[in-house]
Design brief:
This protein is α+β, with helices and mostly antiparallel strands. The chain has helices spanning 50-56, 92-98, 101-110, 116-127, 134-139, 149-163, 173-199, 212-221, 232-245, 252-261, 267-279, 286-297, 303-311, 332-348, 353-367, 369-373, 381-391, 398-419, and strands at residues 2-6, 19-28, 31-38, 46-47, 76-79, 84-87, 90-91. Helix 2 packs antiparallel against helix 9, helix 7 (173-199) packs parallel to helix 8 and helix 14 runs parallel beside helix 17. Bound molecules: acetyl coenzyme *A.
Length: 446
């Protein structure tokens, strides 16, 4: 097969394709076809490979989707080389500095930043759906006290599907909207109760007068024996952290939600599948793993030994919180996170030796040829653990907080997929490398 660029105009049926004049010509076994090239509003052009199979009977092979766009999306744009992240066109730095999490949720769900009236209505709807059905509270008792809170999250969030199934019509705008509101509203309550259950403390009901993030902090840290006083600096810090994690285009957990729901499955169950995928240490579990690693390193003088381990191909150890599939430059979220980390520690008057270890580790790694040549930079998880620990969360809750923040991304991507006229059930193919046809041998002859 040979591949080369062409220039014929090709108009495809779907005018959303933003088809360019360019095409890619592919020759295979003497037959030449042209593949349309699609332009996005930003980012690299994309080759439409559907004719490869239709006209040449070929599949493409791309383990890990390193070069494959699985859908078109208007939500989030990442330029990994330049270190850019935007939600619906707005740079992440501006949203974190000037916006709040709830308006970011509105932006991701509905496409525009809300005006005051839209914001108030949205806030009101979310606020009025934060309570859990009383029967849901009993699920927690079934888990071991030492269960990882992510395991509890998967079970309890998935159980929402048993409360809201026959009433959901995902093909109806209103049905999708109310499900979206419920998921966003109930996720912090489910997460706070996972924390309270592990602590052996009573569940704290949500309060409607409190803002989303403040309400979450209160449900986590308040106890019935005394009044809870909000620290606005810490609430704002967590709100920024939520903004940074709100969406990240077609990552593993988001793609999981899209693939699971492409069959038309219940959205609560599909988001539970997203929580599962997020849990892994190569994805959302990295914040927990990064803090554990910093604790293990413990002091600046031990850094070189750990860097050597990270570079050793025979050692499975990797620098957690470093490297990213898409960012081959500094993760823009890591910059904001580092600033939030300093603000929180300064506000609380904490001198965390792990911050010194992290900063020195970053400095040395960024000067090291191994990391430079592979474009390995700190990602969002590198500084988030230190910050979340200072906010009072145990390491086991870090990925849970990520899940709370990412819920809006999963939900917005799910909505976009269902509303996409090109939507089809996700069904990748494979390169079969197993045995060729062979005949069954009776057991006594094997
Ligand atoms: N430490 C040491 N070496 C690394 C690291 C690391 N953290 N990350 C990548 N490398 C090396 C690999 O060994 C490989 O080297 P080679 O070319 O000599 O074989 C090269 O860099 C490329 O790495 P890949 O694994 O091919 O990159 P991929 O895009 O598949 O992986 C990933 C990205 C999973 C994030 C990886 O960098 C990693 O494991 N990082 C640590 C875990 C982490 O922090 N995950 C959080 C991601 S952010 C998020 O989910 C919010």
């Amino acid at each position: 097969m040979s591949v080369r660029g062409g220039s014929d105009v090709r108009d495809r049926e779907n005018n959303r394709n933003m088809t360019s004049k360019e095409t890619v010509r592919v020759t295979y076994k003497g037959k030449e076809i042209e593949l349309p090239v699609l332009h996005g509003t930003d980012g690299p052009d994309v080759v439409d490979i559907a004719p490869l199979n239709k006209e040449l009977g070929l599949f493409t092979y791309d383990p890990g989707f390193k070069a494959t766009a699985s859908c078109r999306s208007e939500l989030t744009f990442i330029d990994g080389k330049k270190g850019i992240l935007r939600y619906r066109g707005y740079p992440i730095e501006q949203l974190a500095e000037h916006g709040n999490y709830l308006e970011t949720c509105y932006l991701l769900l509905y496409g525009e930043l809300p005006n005051q009236q839209q914001y108030d209505e949205f806030n009101d709807k979310i606020t009025r759906h934060t309570m859990l059905h009383e029967q849901m509270m009993r699920f927690y008792q079934g888990f071991r006290r030492d269960a990882h809170p992510m395991a509890i999250m998967v079970g309890v969030f998935g159980a929402l599907s048993s409360f809201h199934h026959s009433s959901i019509n995902v093909t109806d705008d209103k049905g999708r909207d109310i499900s979206s509101i419920r998921m966003l509203a109930k996720m912090p309550t489910i997460a706070a109760y996972a924390y309270k259950y592990a602590k052996g403390q009573p569940f704290i009901y949500p309060r409607n007068e409190l803002y989303y993030t403040s309400n979450f902090l209160r449900m986590c840290f308040s106890v019935p024996t005394e009044d809870w006083h909000e620290d606005p600096v810490l609430s704002r810090a967590l709100d920024k952290i939520f903004i940074l994690h709100a969406d990240h285009e077609q990552n593993a957990s988001t793609s999981t939600v899209r693939l699971a729901s492409s069959s038309g499955a219940n959205p609560y169950a599909c988001v539970a599948a997203g929580i599962v995928s997020l849990w892994g240490p190569a994805h959302g579990g990295a914040n927990e793993a990064a803090l554990k690693m910093l604790m293990e390193i413990g002091s600046v003088k031990r850094i070189p030994a750990y860097l050597e381990r990270a570079k050793d191909k025979n050692d499975p150890f990797r620098l957690m919180g470093f490297g990213h599939r898409v960012y081959k430059n500094y993760d823009p979220r890591a910059r904001v996170m580092q600033k939030v980390c300093h603000e929180v520690l300064e506000h609380l008057g904490i001198e965390d030796p792990l911050l010194e270890v992290a900063m020195e580790l970053e400095r040395i790694a960024l000067e090291d040829d191994y990391f430079k040549s592979r474009n390995l930079y700190p990602n969002i998880d590198f500084y988030s653990g230190i910050t979340l620990r200072a906010l009072g969360f145990p390491t086991s809750m870090f990925t849970v907080l990520f899940a709370v923040a990412r819920t809006v991304g999963w939900v917005a991507q799910w909505r976009e997929m269902i509303e996409d006229p090109e939507q089809k059930i996700g069904r990748p193919r494979q390169l079969y490398v197993g045995p060729e046809k062979r005949d069954y041998i009776p057991m006594d002859q094997r």
